């Protein structure tokens, strides 16, 4: 007597090092229709994510964002979560950090801290979806990558290459080199003509793409 055995859900929450209330909020989200905006709002509603301060100038835009998801009643905490979700949404849509900082009147360091927390919580959401909503796993995993790298989904195949961050990946994509296959068949001269690519980086980009394709990644 006196011995307690944790449920599989409780054990998973413990392993993820998230607040139990956060886990409940994320689990409830998985019971609804998926969208990146709703996922980010749920992440930002958790006690593990402290929301950004909402000024009077922010209220209109944040309210419109919440109402776009049919949230008509909201308190201060919901407004803070909404603003924070909007910030992370801009980040994964490749808006530069300084531009986001100026738009929302937040420090770059504060933004980076929120990105780190959102990365951790989106990973937790991925693990929870594996248990409770397997049909959403792929979408949640994509969101996790987007938060980690600050990218739109179209350049995910390029971001796995060594030396390629979100800026270089976007430049490759905009130059017509959209897949690993495109890169593997490209030339050093073409890639090195793109801003930010030296001859050496062009060589490693091509060889990296070929190596990944050979291993079955496309």
What report would you give on this structure?
The protein has helices at residues 8-16, 20-30, 36-45, 56-67, 76-92, 97-104, 108-132, 137-149, 156-159, 166-174, 180-184, 188-192, 199-214. It is mostly helical and 218 residues long. α5 (76-92) crosses α7. The model has no long low-confidence stretch (mean pLDDT 94). The protein folds into two domains: 8-150, Orthogonal Bundle (Sec63 N-terminal domain-like fold), CATH 1.10.3380; 157-214, 5' to 3' exonuclease, C-terminal subdomain (DNA polymerase, domain 1), CATH 1.10.150.20.
Shape: globular
Q: Give me the strand/helix succession.
A: HHHHHHHHHHHHH
CATH class assignment of the largest domain: Mainly Alpha
- CATH topology-level name of the largest domain: Sec63 N-terminal domain-like fold
The computed structural class is: mainly alpha
Task: Indicate the mean pLDDT.
Answer: 94
Spans of at least 5 consecutive residues whose pLDDT stays below 50 are: none
Radius of gyration, in angstroms, nearest whole number = 20 Å
CATH hierarchy: architecture of the largest domain: Orthogonal Bundle
Proportion in helices: 55-70%
Main sheet attributes: strand count, strand direction, barrel closure: none
Q: How many independent structural domains?
A: 2
Task: Let me know the number of strands.
Answer: 0
Q: Distance between the terminal alpha carbons, to the nearest Å?
A: 55 Å
Quaternary status of these chains?
single chain
Q: Which range does the strand content fall in? A: under 5%
The helix count comes to 13
């Amino acid at each position: 007597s006196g011995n307690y055995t944790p449920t599989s859900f409780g054990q998973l929450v413990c392993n993820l090092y998230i607040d139990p209330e956060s886990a409940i909020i994320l689990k409830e989200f998985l019971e609804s229709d998926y969208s990146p905006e709703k996922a980010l709002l749920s992440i930002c509603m958790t006690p593990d994510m402290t929301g950004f301060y909402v000024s009077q100038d922010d209220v209109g835009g944040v309210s419109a964002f919440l109402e776009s998801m049919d949230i008509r009643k909201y308190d201060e905490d919901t407004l803070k979560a909404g603003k924070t979700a909007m910030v992370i949404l801009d980040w994964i849509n490749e808006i530069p950090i300084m531009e986001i900082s100026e738009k929302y009147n937040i420090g770059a360091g504060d933004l980076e801290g929120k990105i780190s927390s959102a990365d951790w919580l989106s990973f937790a959401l991925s693990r929870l979806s594996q248990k409770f909503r397997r049909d959403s796993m792929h979408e949640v995993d994509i969101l996790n990558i987007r938060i980690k790298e600050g990218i739109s989904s179209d350049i995910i195949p390029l971001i796995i290459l060594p030396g390629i961050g979100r800026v270089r990946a976007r430049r490759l994509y905009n130059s017509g080199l959209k897949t690993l296959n495109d890169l593997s068949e490209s030339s050093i001269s073409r890639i090195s003509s793109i801003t930010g690519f030296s001859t050496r980086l062009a060589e490693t980009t091509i060889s990296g793409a070929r190596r990944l394709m050979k291993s079955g990644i496309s």
